[in-house]
Amino acid sequence: MSTPKQKITIILFFFMLNIVAFSQSGGPCEVSEKHHDLDWRLRKWTYLNKQGEEEGQRVFKKMATGCVIKEEFIYNGKVLGEGHIFYDQKTDTWHQYYFNNSGYTFTATMHFIDGEMVRDGREFILKNGDSVWKRDVFSWDAENQKVHQREEESRDGKVSWKTISSRSDLLIERDPE
Questions:
Q1: To the nearest whole number, what is the mean pLDDT of the chain?
Q2: Residues 14-20: what's their mean pLDDT?
Q3: Is CB count within 10 Å lower at the N or C end of the chain?
Q4: CA distances from 129 to 79, 124, 125 (A)
Q5: What per-residue confidence (pLDDT) applies to 26?
Q6: What is the DSSP secondary-structure string of 52-111?
Q7: pLDDT band at 164 (very low <50, low <70, confident <90, very high)
Q8: Which domains does the chain have, with CATH numbers?
């Protein structure tokens, strides 16, 4: 059963999606080159955990006349989480909203830097009071049909970044859509 706060969050989320879908200027999203930057994700993927075991599937599809990418996380045949990714022409920024059946929500902005999708960092405060920023960097290996992910951290206010983990087997293509 959803709480009133969760219901309001979901209603506002879908209201925002409608605003974004209908407020894009400069013609339909299908003809906007930027709206195709993530088309390589449009397929069904097998999601692997750190031990390389199948943990579920992620399915990416376009909706709202190509302005929004819908992501579903499927485990044992059930949709457990859903996300929406859209490009804002005015700010030249990608936005991601994600929520799952346990009440977890996640929002992020994303940018392309040197051909890689960088999901902007989140700040963590350590027990000693120091600030650490973490971000994720994704790239597409078309030859091997795999997604590469790096987790990076910054301990100097996002001036420099250090790779703290890297993997190439996060998502493996299964059924191209």
A1: 81
A2: 55
A3: N
A4: 39, 9, 6
A5: 43
A6: S-EEEEEEEEEETTTTEEEEEEEETTEEEEEEEEEEETTTTEEEEEEEETTS-EEEEEEE
A7: very high
A8: 4-176 (2.40.128)
